[in-house]
């Protein structure tokens, strides 16, 4: 299981140091939540901030765009240093065009589905994707409860991906902690985003190790 700490729960006044801390604590990816106050009811940061903190780690930047028109901003996020760019199927941009744009920028595309979106919606795009992110909370805020009823979607996507793109990674985001990660692992999840569970722990290293140890 790969662990991607969600910077949404970090101390933004020292975001670079927080990224360094996660790097040293054994994080696999840095998960950066971009929110526009329109697609979701919260605002975080954009490409200029990501560019500023890129130098604090060599680990992949997993940039989750919770914005209405992702296609318009793909180049900005690519130039800022994103490695994986995930965007919502529910956004206003054309899905195939956005995937193609991410690839044309030399980055790895991921498609995200909100809790009310069915797994089968991503099937037509699976062969072109690096990752599918299944939200296990309504996007917008950290610290919410894990929606275990999203896990059947992980199984459906895994089964379909095995036919067309067995390398596809499935990520879940929201409410991941010691009480929930094993369920995600058993459902076939490859990457878990964790905000509260890692950033609010006394030791991020211990928190990440404990989460990984539960996945067997
Ligand atoms: O994208 C989101 C929320 O929209 C997540 O990345 C949360 O930030 C995860 O936080 P926890 O549920 O782990 O506290």
UniProtKB/TrEMBL annotation:
<feature type="binding site">
    <location>
        <position position="33"/>
    </location>
    <ligand>
        <name>a divalent metal cation</name>
    </ligand>
</feature>
<feature type="binding site">
    <location>
        <position position="31"/>
    </location>
    <ligand>
        <name>a divalent metal cation</name>
    </ligand>
</feature>
<protein>
    <recommendedName>
        <fullName>Ribulose-phosphate 3-epimerase</fullName>
        <ecNumber>5.1.3.1</ecNumber>
    </recommendedName>
</protein>
<feature type="active site" description="Proton donor">
    <location>
        <position position="173"/>
    </location>
</feature>
<feature type="binding site">
    <location>
        <begin position="140"/>
        <end position="143"/>
    </location>
    <ligand>
        <name>substrate</name>
    </ligand>
</feature>
<feature type="active site" description="Proton acceptor">
    <location>
        <position position="33"/>
    </location>
</feature>
<feature type="binding site">
    <location>
        <position position="64"/>
    </location>
    <ligand>
        <name>substrate</name>
    </ligand>
</feature>
<feature type="binding site">
    <location>
        <position position="64"/>
    </location>
    <ligand>
        <name>a divalent metal cation</name>
    </ligand>
</feature>
<keyword id="KW-0479">Metal-binding</keyword>
<keyword id="KW-0413">Isomerase</keyword>
<feature type="binding site">
    <location>
        <begin position="173"/>
        <end position="175"/>
    </location>
    <ligand>
        <name>substrate</name>
    </ligand>
</feature>
<dbReference type="InterPro" id="IPR013785">
    <property type="entry name" value="Aldolase_TIM"/>
</dbReference>
<dbReference type="Pfam" id="PF00834">
    <property type="entry name" value="Ribul_P_3_epim"/>
</dbReference>
<dbReference type="InterPro" id="IPR026019">
    <property type="entry name" value="Ribul_P_3_epim"/>
</dbReference>
<feature type="binding site">
    <location>
        <position position="6"/>
    </location>
    <ligand>
        <name>substrate</name>
    </ligand>
</feature>
<dbReference type="InterPro" id="IPR000056">
    <property type="entry name" value="Ribul_P_3_epim-like"/>
</dbReference>
<comment type="function">
    <text>Catalyzes the reversible epimerization of D-ribulose 5-phosphate to D-xylulose 5-phosphate.</text>
</comment>
<keyword id="KW-0119">Carbohydrate metabolism</keyword>
<comment type="similarity">
    <text>Belongs to the ribulose-phosphate 3-epimerase family.</text>
</comment>
<feature type="binding site">
    <location>
        <position position="173"/>
    </location>
    <ligand>
        <name>a divalent metal cation</name>
    </ligand>
</feature>
<comment type="pathway">
    <text>Carbohydrate degradation.</text>
</comment>
<dbReference type="GO" id="GO:0004750">
    <property type="term" value="F:D-ribulose-phosphate 3-epimerase activity"/>
</dbReference>
<dbReference type="InterPro" id="IPR011060">
    <property type="entry name" value="RibuloseP-bd_barrel"/>
</dbReference>
